[in-house]
TrEMBL record:
GO molecular function: metalloendopeptidase activity
Protein name: Peptidase M23-like protein
Domain M23ase beta-sheet core: 195-291
InterPro entries associated with the record: Cell_wall_metabolism_enzyme (IPR050570), Dup_hybrid_motif (IPR011055), M23ase_b-sheet_dom (IPR016047)
Organism of derivation: Maricaulis maris
Domain of life, per lineage: Bacteria
PANTHER family, sorted: M23 FAMILY METALLOPEPTIDASE (PTHR21666:SF285), PEPTIDASE-RELATED (PTHR21666)
Pfam families per record: Peptidase_M23
SUPFAM superfamilies linked to this entry: Duplicated hybrid motif
Length: 303
């Protein structure tokens, strides 16, 4: 009888078999991916897709602490908080809301929820024709690379108190999409590099590059070893956009830019095979999120 019930349940898409309630079918239905999403809705105060690499923006009471795996944020004076989901996040993640007890500086957990994270498949991309000096750098370049690494880390650690992310995000340039977030890369037919963390558009040298959202410029350099012309913009709460391989830099460190403002020009400097823009987005210098997830955000109901 048990074997028969299991077989019937596996064939059924509901909790009823031949008009009778079947508890085994109900259990299977509850654990199906589509049913689990329905039974565990996303937090009502948050917007974004719950999938690997996504950006999530929430609005709760000011000072609310939000924990989503390794991504932790405290809602600002208007209640906004920025969270992210890493590239290789597990299928289930714990989401916690808590308030801070100002008397003893402890957190009181107000709500706990399991979120189900859509898993993605990442392609392997072969990229040939990259300048070999940027794939296997000469030892003599080490001091420069170390100096530039420290400079980039300092810029990534910026936490601007503005709210440029509330503008929503627009594409920073026009062109043909040649690279996407998360794909593993093999350079010059043999050297396996780290995953590609950005979104690439190819176009002619000099193609204008615009700020996808407002923010604070934390780095603006015309010639970096790996990136060529490079600009960082903090859109608020440490959500930092990086724009790589530029042929021109039209802003300076410390500038406040508006959405749609010209910031630079597309180029082919650094580790590049041709003229293109590589747009990357890093959250509080912890991990990169998919820029496409920023373009897909609809924050109208949060503002």
């Amino acid at each position: 009888m048990i074997a028969l019930a299991v077989a019937l349940a596996l064939q059924s898409t509901t909790a009823f078999v031949d008009g009778q309630f079947d508890p085994i079918a109900e259990l299977i239905a509850q654990n199906a991916p589509e049913a689990r999403e329905a039974s565990a809705p996303a937090p009502t105060g948050c917007r974004g897709q719950y999938e690997q690499g996504a950006l999530i923006i929430c609005r709760f009471e000011p000072g609310t602490r939000l924990d989503l795996g390794e991504s932790v944020a405290v809602a600002d004076a208007q209640g906004f908080a920025v969270l992210g989901i890493p590239r290789n996040a597990p299928e289930e993640m714990l989401f916690e809301m808590s308030t801070v007890n100002v008397v003893n500086s402890t957190n009181q957990i107000d709500e706990t929820q399991i979120l189900f994270i859509a898993q993605r498949e990442y392609n392997l991309q072969h990229v040939d024709g990259v300048p070999q000096t940027t794939v296997t750098p000469a030892p003599s370049t080490l001091p420069r690379r170390q100096r530039e690494y420290a400079q980039k880390q300092a810029a990534f650690n910026s936490v601007w108190d503005g709210q440029g992310f509330l503008d929503g995000f627009i594409s920073p340039a026009e062109g043909i999409t040649t690279g996407v977030y998360g794909s593993a890369r093999v350079y010059n037919n043999g050297h396996e590099g780290s995953p590609h963390w950005g979104l690439d558009w190819a176009n002619e040298v000099g193609t204008p590059v615009y700020a996808p959202a407002g923010g604070l410029v934390t780095l603006a350099e015309p010639d970096m070893y790996y990136e060529g012309g490079l600009i960082f913009i903090d859109h608020g709460q440490g959500l930092v956009s990086a724009f790589l391989h530029l042929s021109g830099v039209e802003v300076s460190e410390g500038d406040i830019v508006e959405q749609g403002q010209l910031i630079g020009a597309m180029g082919a400097g650094g580790r590049a095979t041709g003229s293109h823009l590589d747009w990357r987005v890093k959250l509080r210098n912890q991990f990169y999120v998919d820029p496409q997830s920023l373009l897909d955000l609809d924050l109208s109901e949060l503002r």
